[in-house]
Amino acid sequence: MSELPTTFDEWVENFGEWQTRVGFDPAWIGDFELSIKFDWERAGEQIEFGDYKGRKKWERSLQIPHQNIRDGLLSMITVQGDTEFASVEQQKHLLETAPTDYDRYAAARIMAEEQRHGWQMCYLLMTYFGQQGAREAQKLLERNAQEGSRLLGAFNRPMPHWLDFFCYTMFVDRDGKYQLGMLSTSSFKPLAASMGPMLKEESFHLGTGANGLRRIIKAGVIPLDMLQRYFNKWVSTAHDLFGTDTSTSAEWAYVWGIKGRWDERKKLEEGLEVIKENLNEESRGHYHDEIAAEVEKMNGLLPEGAAPLYVAHENFNREIGSCAGGRYTVEGHAFEGDDAEWEEYLHQMMPRAQDEEDLKKYFEEEWIEFRAPTRMMIESGIGQIKA
Ligand SMILES: [Fe+2]
Ligand SMILES: [Fe+2]
């Protein structure tokens, strides 16, 4: 374990050791610059909601009125940072097996950007949260997805292949978009100001997922029922990421103004009343509607007569929330049947060992529509692809 960093530069040195330890070659970043970016204008001047509404946003930690709020912010920034580094640990081995140079570029760029997001969160921890912040920034380099020690379940799941990668960027990175969006109106100005540039980068990740899945459908090699099972796996995981139902920490975060609702500014403008006990369900609902619409668009690509792809109900296969561990169908109904029938149902709905075997075969075919990298992508050196 490295020593506790006292400055951000010292932390950056430890970050270099993390890259080596997890096997991420810094050359894969090409000309991408790991840097700290703020959009101060978009962050706003005044606290936008909660008990401190109308006061000036906090720019330094001494201005934060209570230790509880400071702790709440610290933990939120830590969790966000944890997901950024975790996803690199989950994905980096995929570069070796990229289906095309374009995909190799896209995955390497996503990983470069996730590292920048992790930098950004650690910069906040190192700059504004004293020794406690330094300790958390250091721990972000020490937990590891491959050891299962990252803070959230989805970020410890192995991602053995590219079908998982496209589902993950489609469904899990899209959860990230919602989390960043909800932090973008934060009363802590440096956090709010961090979100604009991160959201911009995140949109490339979602696009990579959605496009990849469309290209898979167009290639017509991977059977649609199998594709659906991988959707089910990652959709239920992503549903979990919105947290427990009736969460008191989400409620406090709102009262303190540190994390808003999805589209908070629009909702305030429209005078949409906040139901503080239901914040996680509310954002999960928006997310669910968005992915359902995205998958519906994909259905336009299916061959005639094919059963449409769908997004499983929020009740299905949950590990967090009021339906956790319960037996619900992909339509959201309570499952009727005995243990053996439930096992059989899961066998139909979730990826099975045989799928993993079959995929190895499919991956040797033209399983995804070809896409060539642009000259700009090649020249960036990202993913180290050659012209
Ligand atoms: Fe990210
Ligand atoms: Fe991302």
What does the model show?
The chain is mainly alpha-helical and 387 residues long. The chain is built from 14 helices and no strands. It binds fe (ii) ion (2 copies). One fe (ii) ion (FE2) binds next to α4.
List the helices and strands and how they pair.
Blueprint: H1 8-22, H2 40-43, H3 67-91, H4 101-128, H5 130-139, H6 162-183, H7 189-219, H8 224-240, H9 248-255, H10 264-269, H11 279-298, H12 339-349, H13 353-362, H14 375-380
Helix pairs in contact: 3-4, 4-5, 4-7, 6-7, 6-8
The structure holds fe (ii) ion (2 copies).
One fe (ii) ion binds at residues 84, 114, 117, 176, 202.
Give a short overview.
The chain is 55% helix and 0% strand. The protein has 14 helices and no strands.
Main features:
387 residues, mainly alpha, Ribonucleotide Reductase, subunit A, 55% helix, globular, binds fe (ii) ion
- Give the tally of β-strands: 0
Structural class: mainly alpha
Main beta sheet strand tally, sense and closure: none
- The CATH topology annotation reads as Ribonucleotide Reductase, subunit A
